[in-house]
Amino acid sequence: MTGSRIATVDEVPADGSFLFTLRRVEDGEEREAVLLRLEDGIAGWLNYCQHFTHIRLDKGSGAPVRDGEVVCANHGAMFEKDTGLCTYGPCEGAYLNPVDLEVRDGTVYLADEEFEFVRVGPTERDPTDLSSKSNIEF
Ligand code: FES
To answer: Ligand 1 mean position to 53 CA, how many Å?
Structure first.
C-alpha cells in the first residue's frame, strides 16, 4: 500500500540501517525491511539475506554497514547499498529484494503496492527461532 510515512531522511543513519516492519498484502505475513542512506537519497530492501533467504541480515538492530556496503551478520555477505547486488560472499551476484519508496520533503514514504507499513522496528521475533541469531547454518 502506498503513502504511509516510514521515517524522516535524518532518522536513517549513514553508517547503519533503519529497521521497520511491513505486512505483505497477499498473505498478511510480516516482513522486515531496512532503509539505507545513499549519497543522493534513500534505498529500501527487505531485511533478508540471499544466502539463506529466510535469514535476516541483522541480529536484531538493523543490518550493519561497512565500507559503504550492507553486511549480512551471519556469514559476512556484502551488498551494495544502492543496487542490492551481493559483491562478496556465498550469494555473490544475487540481489536483495527491493522495497519501493518515495522521498518527499525530507520524509520517506512507502510506495510499494505489495506491502503495508506496520511499525518502526522488528517483527515480533520468536525466541526459539534460531535463524535470527545462529550462524552455524553455513
Ligand atoms: S545468511 Fe547471509 S551470508 Fe549467510
So the answer is: 8
Domain annotation covers residue 135: no
Q: What CATH number has the domain bearing residue 108? A: 2.102.10.10
Ligand 1 centre and the CA of 138: distance in Å?
A: 8
Residue 130 lies in a domain: no
Average pLDDT across the chain, whole number = 90
Ligand 1 neighbours, Cβ below 6 Å, are: 49, 51-52, 55, 72, 74-75, 77, 89-90
Over residues 5-15, the mean pLDDT reads 95
Q: How many domains does the chain have?
A: 1
Q: Please compute Rg for the chain using Cα positions.
A: 14
pLDDT digits (tens, 9 = 90+) for 41-60: 999 999 999 999 999 999 88
Domain residues for 50? 2-121
Identify the DSSP state of 90: T
Residue 53 lies in a domain: yes
The helix (run of H) or strand (run of E) holding residue 18 is: strand 18-24
For cell 539475506, the residue is 49
Would the pTM of this model clear 0.85, i.e. be above it? yes
- Residue 5, helix vs strand vs coil: strand
* Distance of CA 121 from the midpoint of ligand 1 (Å): 21
Q: Is the pLDDT of residue 81 over 80?
A: yes
